[in-house]
Amino acid sequence: MIGAFAHLLVAYMVLLMPWIGRFKYRKLEDCLAAGIPDARLRFYRLSAAQQALLVGVVLLYARLAALPWHVLGLAAPYSWAAARALLITFAIAIGFSIVLFRRTGDRFLRRLLKMAGALIPRMPRERVWFAGLSLGAGVSEELLFRGFLLWYLSFFFPQLNRVQLIVLSSLLFGFCHVYQGWMGIVGTSVMGAVFAWLYFSTRSLFVPMAVHALVDLRLLAILTPGRIASLRRPHRPKGNGPKLEQAGPSVCSG
């Protein structure tokens, strides 16, 4: 019975989760296009509730299956010194990327807005909720895709080696971002592989949770309301006439 529950949860992640996310994103785009007030805020609130539900489901399963917390990565790193060094290194890299993209990178940011622009907050209240959602994603997605899924794959498919575990879990993580298009799938798959590597390197979810949250939070520093407005304005590529590059969709949920 406990094993069946684990299989059902993974089946949900593989068969339903990507398409539910895509449906929610398209619905948010429609809500924003229709000018429905607070559409993005409602999307954030619903997403926060879903994050809490996923965390609750995984923890409940661990309790019912009598799984030690450490098999899900809920344990101290094997070495605090190594974990601290990794966290500082990634924090510096993330900080550097913020500085870089605040000064340049308009083409990349326009592409990002086209892929998932509806998710990006514009108003102060939206930015506060997005910050909370970023922290929640760091906890819930790492617990689900790194903690639970890597345990599931290694337990039910013990023949898989570490590289195969990282590849499979990262591909599923990327596919769950199908609403962003193929470039979003590739990008999030790569990030998933990095998070999985951090997990295996520290034997704890705490570092990948922190890095995941920081990666999402950096969007608040890069895509400020003023920067978004400037990216949406027409721009003139060198040697060509005026050209308008659309920044892309907007998101709503429900």
Helix vs. strand class? mainly alpha
- Portion of residues in beta strands equals under 5%
Question: Considering DSSP H and I runs of 4 or more, what fraction of the residues is helical?
Answer: over 70%
Q: Mean pLDDT, nearest integer?
A: 91
N/C terminus separation: 32 Å
Low-confidence stretches: 238-254
> What is the N-to-C succession of helices and strands?
HHHHHHHHH
Secondary-structure blueprint:
Blueprint: H1 2-33, H2 39-64, H3 80-103, H4 106-116, H5 124-156, H6 162-175, H7 181-202, H8 206-222, H9 225-232
Helix pairs in contact: 1-2, 2-5, 3-8, 5-6, 5-7, 5-8, 6-7, 7-8
Describe the structure in your own words:
74% of the residues lie in helices and 0% in strands. With 254 residues, the chain is an all-alpha fold. The protein has one domain. The chain starts with a helix and ends in a 22-residue tail after the last helix. Mean pLDDT is 91; it is low at 238-254.
